[in-house]
Amino acid sequence: MCTGGMRYFWTWGRDPATPGCAGTLYVPPIPISLGAWGGTSQEFIVALASRYWKVYRGGVFQDQVAATNICWTRGLAMWQGEAWNKGDQIGGVAGDKYAISTARYQAVAGGAWLNPSLVAPCAQTNNPFYCEVGASDVVNTWTAH
């Protein structure tokens, strides 16, 4: 899947040690390519519909996972950028950071979209990959090479 350009990916996984997941089997998160990044902003939605968690990019259905495969820790949401190795780049550069913005979630399917009220610092910053909370609904990522 590594083509030397930026791509969209999504993944899911399951850890029986996570609260609410006891008795389930471990499923490692395996990246699934959703295609090349075209250089423009895209809206991503993960929604529960007809017993499936469905992934949409730019309003277009991309993939789905049976709801019975997923267990959630209620009240926990995550926005993330990821690199495969130190030769990759996560997001932008220090002078032009990649923004994951207008982050929202629903506490109840079909309910109001809520601001996650993100707080600093980011969960992990590991040279040369960095992140910062830019606002209550923005995470910035970049690589310093």
Q: How would you describe this protein?
A:
The protein is mostly beta strands. The chain folds into two domains: 76 residues, no CATH class; 65 residues, no CATH class. β9 and β10 form a beta hairpin.
Which parts are unreliable, with pLDDT below 50 for 5 consecutive residues or more?
none
**Overall mean pLDDT score?**
82
Give, in spatial order, the strands making up the sheet with the most strands.
Answer: 3-4-5
Compute the number of strand runs: 10
Radius of gyration: 16 Å
Helix count equals 0
Broad structural category: mainly beta
Biggest sheet statistics? 3 strands, antiparallel
Give helix % range.
under 10%
The N- and C-terminal alpha carbons lie at a distance of 23 Å
Morphology: globular
Q: Give helix and strand order, one letter per element, not per position.
A: EEEEEEEEEE
Strand content: 25-35%
| Tally of discrete structural domains | 2
